[in-house]
Amino acid sequence: MIVELPGGLHLDTKSWVIELRREFHRYPELSGQEVRTSARVEEILKSLGIETRRAARTGVVGTLRGKAGGKTIGLRADMDALEQEEKTGLPFASEHKGVMHACGHDAHTAMLLGAARELAGQKDSLKGTVVFLFQPAEEGLGGARMMVEDGALQGVDAVFGEHVLAFPGAPAGTVATGPGPMLAGMAMFKAIFKGKGGHGAMPHLSVDTVVPACHAITSMESIVTKEIDSAMRTVISVGQVHGGTRMNIIADETWFDGSVRFFAPEVAGLVEEKMGRILRSTAEAFRTSVDFQYRKGVPPTVNDPEMGALAVEVAKRVVGAGKVMPISPVMGSEDFAYYSERVPGVYVGLSASKGDGKDYPNHHPQFDINEDMLEVGTTLHVEFAKAFLAR
Predict the structure, then answer these.
(1) Which region holds residue 20: left if phi is over 0, alpha if psi is between -120 and 50, else beta?
(2) Are the C-beta atoms of residues 211 and 270 closer than 8 Å to each other?
(3) Of 40, 71, 348, 385, which one has the fewest beta carbons inside 10 Å?
(4) Could you give the count of Cα atoms lying within 13 Å of 284 in the half-sphere of its Cβ?
(5) What is the Cα–Cα distance from 58 to 37, expressed in whole angstroms?
């Protein structure tokens, strides 16, 4: 038994959460298209006697009211899947071609439903209210922001979230959390160089766009190394480059895009200014024009000091002090930040490694989790909610 709390979860809840996870895994839905998933979530919440309403179109907010006069805690799970062909070979593998739960959101949804079931059974002893935030579109479309805009945090005093990870080297059941920065903020950029196409044998009669795009990409590498304080952790990554139609035709248009990751919010503006300068000067040098687009995405995820300390305390009770590790800020991003920048919040990483030497990281076509950890994740939700409301 991994969970050391007296009694742990009810046996039927454990198996129920596993079956739900497999159901959600079998029928994944892309960001903003979580129609079946949200309908199933709402159906289950209502069966537990929990009030529900819709938010962000395919999001669901459930409200469980305990004793009057207490505080309100928000528990969050994301529901969307990735545009990816599954290669796990699982008996409950995705039946939707080209769509897969490769980031563990199937587990997040199932664990939060398990927590709802457990807390609904303890409603009369809860000193306050629990709001269950089942969020769509975490994978790049800002579902958390839409949930906030639809009033999902109204009346909520604090928010808790968690994410399963399956990286080798982190034993199953390890919990990473604590006060302070946890995940980076993100901005997105795209640069389109425009010139004049022509025959590959006579480039002097054309205005090539591939060469300036390549120069710009290599020049942008100097932004992090030479123009940003090394103490301000920053990453610039070009994700894709597209130009031309054939090997013997000069490309009249070449574009590339990518992302910027940062912990200091002011870095996003600094990078935009420096990137724009490089792109404009490069375009001029090579007789092209450039269309530069820069969009700020999610802010950094920073755990509230008090909530972070409470999460550590709860995690030690659930998995034991030896399996709780301090957070090491990761350059990945999460739109949980839209909740935690408005109310005190804490985000938790939970290792769900299988430990068989065949672990694959999140977003891999063979990503899978140790289903025993669903009990741990469910219990973390339950115990954090109870600990916060009992203060």
Answers:
(1) alpha
(2) no
(3) 71
(4) 6
(5) 9
Token pair of 24, please?
């959600």
Summarised one tens digit per residue, pLDDT across range 191-230 is 999 999 999 999 999 999 999 999 999 999 999 999 999 9
Query: Which tokens sit at 215?
Result: 């120069």
What is the per-residue pLDDT across 328-343, written as a single tens digit (0 to 9) for each?
Answer: 888 989 999 999 999 9
Express the helix, strand and coil content of the chain in percent, nearest 5 each: 35, 25, 40
Whether residue 336 contacts residue 372, with contact meaning beta carbons closer than 8 Å, is answered with no
Residue 301 tokens, joined = 């995820």
Strand partners for 234: 262
172 and 373 in contact (C-beta within 8 Å)?
yes
**Sign of the CA dihedral with 349 first, then 354, 357, and 361 last:** negative
Instruction: Measure Cα distances from 384 to 38, 147, 373 in Å.
Output: 24, 22, 16
Q: Residues 263, 232: contact at Cβ < 8 Å?
A: yes
Question: Helix, strand or coil for residue 197?
Answer: coil
Domains of the chain are 11-182+300-390 (3.40.630.10), 185-296 (3.30.70.360)
The rounded percent of the chain whose pLDDT value lies above 90 is 89
